[in-house]
């Protein structure tokens, strides 16, 4: 494909992803109150378990309620449309797929979507503990007047960080499948990878507490070794499928 064809293909796939996000965002806007109650549940749970703390969600100005509706609708639209935009991204990166590669791409999407959604769900489960810890730093006699926009900005970033982090092992396997990252390099560099995972968890999470960092980093470390296991299986299959004459040519080239 020429550069112009690539740009047109990129525009087409971005348009498809954007339409999917917009349609699902509109559907989310029609169910705004349910979504609001669902995302505010961790906050309300903390408020009920700590009746002595004067804490509440507040709209700071006249436009805040409308702005929050738009923000939450887009957030839900992005998550709900994840199967669409993840597939569009993968299909653009790997053009001209053969029949076998198409099967690999379908497996890629089959793994990516549940991992992304599972990461988002884990972020939602971890959220109450993070709020408990963060609000616990408030000195006695003070009150937390939490702006709705600030709270939901924190919640959405928190959930998306967990969802995006869980895509990390899928891309490792994808790099291995196209021959960029062999399994041998993955296992040799596992110590560096673990350190980088913890650094990513510390930087990416919107909270500064070590508990949240560990709750994100621990599953990612586990998924890293799962990705290594899958990459090793792929490398073994690749070696078995390698023609004998190619091995002979490599030996002759090395002797020269």
Shape: flat
Strand coverage percent: under 5%
* Distance between the amino and carboxyl termini: 38 Å
What ranges have pLDDT less than 50 throughout 5 or more consecutive residues?
none
Strand order of the largest sheet: 1-2
Number of helices: 11
Average pLDDT level: 81
Helical fraction equals: over 70%
What are the secondary-structure elements, in order, as H or E?
Answer: HHEHHHEHHHHHH
User: What's the multimeric state?
Assistant: single chain
The largest sheet is: 2 strands, parallel
Radius of gyration: 23 Å
Annotation, overall tally of beta strands: 2
Helix- and strand-based class?
Answer: mainly alpha
Describe the protein.
Strands 1-2 form a two-stranded parallel sheet. It is mainly alpha-helical and 256 residues long. The protein is flat. It has a domain at 1-97 and 135-154. Helices cover 80% and strands 4% of the residues.
Secondary structure blueprint with pairings:
Elements lengths: L2 H28 L1 H18 L4 E5 L5 H17 L1 H12 L5 H37 L7 E5 H18 L2 H10 L5 H6 L1 H15 L5 H32 L2 H12 L1
Parallel strand pairs: 1-2
Helix pairs in contact: 1-3, 1-4, 2-5, 3-6, 4-5, 5-6, 5-10, 7-10, 9-10
């Amino acid at each position: 494909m020429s550069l112009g064809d690539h740009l047109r293909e990129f525009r087409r796939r971005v348009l498809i992803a954007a339409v999917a996000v917009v349609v699902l965002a509109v559907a989310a806007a029609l169910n705004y109150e349910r979504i609001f109650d669902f995302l505010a549940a961790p906050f309300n749970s903390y408020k009920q378990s700590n009746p002595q703390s004067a804490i509440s969600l507040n709209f700071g100005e006249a436009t805040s309620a409308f702005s929050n509706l738009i923000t939450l609708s887009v957030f839900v639209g992005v998550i709900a449309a994840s199967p669409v935009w993840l597939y569009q991204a993968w299909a653009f990166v790997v053009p001209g797929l053969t029949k076998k590669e198409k099967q690999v791409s379908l497996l890629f999407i089959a793994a990516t979507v549940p991992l992304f959604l599972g990461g988002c769900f884990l972020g939602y489960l971890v959220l109450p503990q993070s709020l408990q810890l963060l609000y616990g730093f408030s000195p006695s006699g003070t009150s937390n007047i939490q702006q709705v926009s600030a709270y939901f900005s924190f919640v959405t970033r928190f959930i998306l960080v967990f969802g995006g982090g869980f895509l990390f092992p899928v891309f490792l396997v994808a790099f291995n499948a196209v021959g960029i990252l062999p399994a041998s390099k993955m296992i040799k560099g596992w110590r560096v990878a673990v350190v980088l995972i913890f650094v990513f968890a510390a930087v990416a999470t919107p909270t500064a507490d070590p508990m949240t960092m560990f709750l994100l980093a621990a599953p990612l470390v586990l998924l890293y070794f799962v990705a290594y296991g899958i990459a090793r299986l792929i490398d073994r299959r690749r070696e078995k499928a390698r023609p004998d004459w190619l091995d002979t040519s490599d030996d002759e080239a090395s002797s020269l």
